What does this fold into?
Amino acid sequence: MYCFSYYTYDESLIHFFGSTFAYVQAIVAACIGAKFGVNGNPGELPKWYAIVVVLFICIYVAGFAWSWGPLGWLVPSEIFPLEIRSAAQSINVSVNMLFTFIVAQIFLTMLCHLKFGLFLFFAFFVVLMSIFVYYFLPETKGIPIEEMGQVWKTHWFWSRYVTDEDYPKAGGYEMTKGGQGPKNV
It folds into this structure.
């Protein structure tokens, strides 16, 4: 994440690592499916086969760490305006931790029931996330945080939900003393 947020990053690098981990996820599913089948009994499992599967799982984790992993933290920090960023980021952290807990609790149960299909289950969501990001998240590279309101107002989908009242054209907001809330300036 440090690499992507501190330096200007090449998006093709992110797409390369993201697609690599999606392909490797399918390879892991194929390897486990070929050896274990649907009954879960591998028979005799050669050591080299186990090493290959573990190697592909490590590549998958590395690909996730370089592509999708940091985006759950990076994207929300870039898309929310300054007025609500800290509240939005705290909600983001809470939801992220909640779903991490849920996935950690149900992973082994799902693995026992779905077997190699579990990796295909997660691959489906990688494809779904890719489609969502491609169509619904605007490019934020080089856009100051103060201009994010304009980005949302001009987006083909989100412009239906963002009004001029949400982001006034002239001026901005100024915090007032005495708990009176923000005022337009």
